[in-house]
Write a structure and sequence with these properties.
single chain; alpha+beta; 17-stranded mixed β-sheet; 4 helices; 17 strands; about 20% helix; binds the ligand N[C@@H](CCC[C@H](N)C(=O)O)C(=O)O
Length: about 260
């Protein structure tokens, strides 16, 4: 099977995106998705996204992790696929699309994408960490000397030990200033550190607000792949109007053979 694909990156979180409006892609072929995402035998990516038709929205986003399995929401993927929809001419500046966690709105201005995330209902604060679901599950833990921290070993341990079979993404954080945090993330389904995670930095911003590390509701998150912004409003015990903002870049187009 031969088909075109596009390579995208959003702060170094990289994706293969396929225009599947004609429904040709074998969606249950886990091995094919994993092979396309393989960095030696395939294109190489943290995940694969399908853009599909939707009866009431501009499009549907289908997200696979690089292990080939369908997963929960991907924030950077949502920003990249919105940029791709504009590139295809499906939308102009604003879009509404459906992902696995429901409807999302996004605004695309050149290579900058603002994505509205779902409301966050519950934030679980424990002594050493915070856990919340921003479309995907996230463990957030403050560490010292983040630059030298062993994200792979500690992230994998926490992912398996604390969260069992389902697992969780694991974010390690260091505060740089009142509303600036550095973040490194171990991603479930990639089973490695990625250069950035959109639902992860969203979780970090809210966890830092919830635990009083910042009183700002607009937070800058520095990841190894670049900088993202998250803004939000607190409502009761949850959060609404949560926006993830940053660059989304089309890197190249190719043909899968
Ligand atoms: N990179 C993503 C998160 C993708 C989902 C995650 N790997 C999971 O399975 O929970 C992002 O930008 O949010």
């Amino acid at each position: 099977m031969e088909f075109p694909f596009y390579k995208y990156q959003g702060t170094g979180n990289d994706f293969v995106i396929i225009d599947n409006r004609e429904d040709f892609f074998p969606k249950k072929d886990t091995e094919l998705v994993a092979k396309i995402c393989d960095r030696r035998f395939g294109v190489g990516a943290d995940g694969l996204l399908l853009l599909e038709n939707h009866p009431d929205a501009d499009f549907r986003m289908v997200y696979y992790n690089s292990d080939g399995n369908l997963s929960s929401m991907c924030g950077n993927g949502g920003r990249c696929i919105s940029h791709f929809a504009k590139f295809l001419g499906i939308i102009s500046e604003k879009t509404t699309f459906e992902a696995v966690d429901g409807m999302h709105e996004a605004t695309v201005k050149n290579d900058w994408v603002s994505l509205k995330m779902n409301n966050i209902e519950k934030v679980k604060v424990s002594e050493n960490f915070t856990f919340l679901n921003t479309g995907s599950p996230h463990h957030v833990e403050i560490v010292t000397e983040l630059q030298d921290f062993d994200v792979f070993t500690n992230g994998r341990y926490i992912r398996n030990k604390t969260y069992g079979k389902e697992g969780s993404n694991v974010n390690f954080v260091e505060q740089n200033d009142h509303a600036i945090f550095s973040v490194r993330t171990y991603e479930r389904g990639v089973e490695d550190e990625t250069l950035s995670c959109g639902t992860g930095v969203t979780a970090v911003a809210i966890a830092m607000f919830e635990t009083g590390k910042t009183s700002e509701n607009k937070v800058t998150l520095k990841t190894p792949g670049g900088q993202l912004q998250v803004r939000f409003e607190k409502e009761g015990s949850g959060y609404k109007n949560v926006f993830l903002e940053g660059p989304a870049i089309q890197v190249f187009k190719g043909i899968w053979k």
